[in-house]
Design brief:
Length: about 240
């Protein structure tokens, strides 16, 4: 099993879009048994996959030693399951401090290793205890970066905090190559995968489905397919 954390210091950078589409690609392109674990109290991934969860259930996995398997739900995509989020996760950082268990999430993930080939974590923004646990447990951290100075700065701060780039895959997102700033940023980082800005991506919140389910031939869907291949290549060579 490999764990992939989708993380950014900044909000509003397409983190959930990456999480949902990469989880879908893992299940469909690679036929992996895949779990998407939504750790963001905004529950955007859960919304996009049309999931409903009883209030407080998301937090109970951590607070009551409830088996995470009891919260797993099948999605409309074969081989793709979900642990949904809810507003109770807003207090998760405080709970981790109270429990004083810095590897609680890692332990829960290890318990799922026989059931899944890939686990994708949709992390909340910011440098929180939840995210520290997610990054500690992840085999690969995928970081969405808008081609702008502020987003680039947030990525550099993350690398400074981690002290390494070995487990970090930056991805340019919302790319509009007609804009000089975007074109220059992409040209300055030719090794980074790039996801274009597209109306089809915006339609995900209306359709409540991954891009591949309704716009499989779109340039954005092709970009996500290529990104997933890159992720698999990174996971095949863990030491870089």
């Amino acid at each position: 099993m490999a764990t992939i954390a989708i993380y950014s210091l900044k909000g509003g950078v397409g983190k959930t879009t990456l999480a949902v589409n990469l989880a879908w690609a893992a299940a469909t392109q690679s036929a992996r048994r895949t779990l998407l674990w939504d750790l963001d109290p905004q529950a955007a991934s859960s919304f996009l996959l049309a999931a409903k969860t009883p209030k407080g259930e998301a937090r109970s996995i951590f607070s009551k030693d409830a088996a995470p398997e009891k919260s797993i739900r099948a999605t409309a995509t074969p081989r793709l399951d979900l642990i949904a989020a809810d507003a109770s996760l807003r207090d998760l950082d405080l709970l981790f401090h109270e429990l004083d268990k810095k590897k609680r999430l890692q332990k829960l993930l290890a318990g799922l290793s026989d059931e899944y080939d890939r686990i994708v974590l949709d992390c909340p923004p910011g440098l929180t205890e939840t995210n520290k646990q997610a990054m500690r447990a992840a085999d690969l951290i995928v970081v969405p970066v808008i081609p702008s100075p502020l987003s680039q700065r947030a990525f550099e701060e993350l690398i400074h905090y981690l002290g390494t780039t070995k487990r970090v895959l930056p991805v340019h997102v919302m790319v509009d190559r007609r804009r000089r700033l975007h074109a220059d940023s992409v040209a300055a980082n030719p090794g980074w995968p790039a996801i274009p800005m597209a109306s089809a991506v915006e339609q995900m919140s209306v359709r409540r489905a991954p891009l591949g389910e309704f716009a499989a031939r779109s340039p954005a869907a092709d970009a996500f397919a290529g990104l997933w291949q890159t992720v698999e290549q990174w996971l095949a060579v863990p030491e870089r």
